[in-house]
Each structure stands twice: as C-alpha cells, then as structure tokens.
Amino acid sequence: MTESLKLYTNPMSRGRIARWMLEEVGEPYEAIVMGYGESMKSPDYLKINPMGKVPSLVHEGAVVTECAAICTYLAEVFPEADLGPTAAERAAYYRWLYFAAGPVEAAITNKSAGFEVSPERRGTVGYGSYEATIETLAYAVRQHDYIAGDRFTAADVYVGSQVGWGLQFGTIEARPEFSAYWSRLSEREAYKRASALDDALVKGQ
C-alpha cells in the first residue's frame, strides 16, 4: 500500500531535517530522492514545490515545504508522538523554532556567502548582526537541556540541526553550550536512524 506520507528529499540537503523528524514521529513514509538539476526542476515536481527545491512533504495530498513548517506540521498531525509543546512549553517552543528558521538561518547563510551587514544597516535586517544572533542562540540553549524545557520536542529537531551543522561546518563557534546541546540530540535513536539512511544514500551516489 502506498504510504500516506511522502518525503521528497536529497541526502545532501536540508531534507535530513525532515527525515529526522519523520523518524521521531515513527509513522511509515516513502522517501523519494530527487537529484539536483532536471529532477527538482521538472514540471511534475514544480507542481509540488514551485521553488524546485527539497524537502517537500506530501501527506494525504497536502503539501508542506520548509523544514520548520514540516517539523511543526508533523508534531501537530501526529500528537501521539508527543513532540508538540505543552502549555508551559509553548512560548519557548515557537519562539526558538522560528528564531532558528529566521534570524539564525539568515545570519549564518549571509556570513557563509561573505555578506556582512554594515553597522548602520543592521536595523534593516531581521537578525541585526551575526554576533548578536549567535549570542542569542547560545542564550537559548543554556536555559534548559532542550530548547523548550526539560524534554525533547519537534523544535529541537530544527534548532538542533542548525547547531549541529554549524558545528560541523564551522559556521557556529564550538561553544560549550552548543556542543553539550548537540551531544544530547545526536544520541537520539531517531537521529541515528535518519543519519544512517541518508549516509547510505550519499555513499550510493
């Protein structure tokens, strides 16, 4: 039977975040690996994601793109996985999830591309400065063992992925709080399963 969840992905993309989230949810899904170039820009795929990029999640005909949205959606649609926030966690959960998807993503991407915002223009960009953004991210992960409190949630999948990749590629400095946070997350069985699946695909390319 065709799975009701389909993930369009590439193992060398942000699709790794979506796969990790799916492994945390524990529902069966079909992973459809897309190649860069013609595959992602094909007319059929552009009907799913007009951006021609991955990941895209299709659930019973509904399309969700953007990793933060995919994490949020899956937590809400599959509440039995207990990855959404409690009432007490809700503010921190949404605050830091979308902080990572907005300011953190933009600040790291711009710095990696060699784009520096001049001091007089910092008020016009959402993250202000790379330094302020990283300092705020460090503040966030110091508050609790997990981003919304004392237990793992879907927000940790996204925020943790940003921290893990930043440490791996040197776009985030290896502060003790970042290393400790990522160490906790990378020991999760769902993360290990997701990484093994994507690593195997990379080796097979």
UniProtKB/TrEMBL annotation:
Per UniProt, the keywords (alphabetical) are: Transferase
The family database entries (CDD domains) matched by this protein are listed as: GST_C_8, GST_N_GTT1_like
Specify the GST C-terminal domain's residue ranges.
86-205
Q: Where is the GST N-terminal domain?
A: 2-82
Q: Per its record, what are the GO molecular function terms?
A: transferase activity
Checking InterPro entries in the record gives: Glutathione-S-Trfase_C-like (IPR010987), Glutathione-S-Trfase_C_sf (IPR036282), Glutathione_S-Trfase (IPR040079), Glutathione_S-Trfase_N (IPR004045), GST_C (IPR004046), Thioredoxin-like_sf (IPR036249)
Sorted alphabetically, which Pfam families does this protein's record hold?
GST_C, GST_N
Q: Which family does it belong to?
A: Belongs to the GST superfamily.
Q: What is this protein called?
A: Glutathione S-transferase family protein
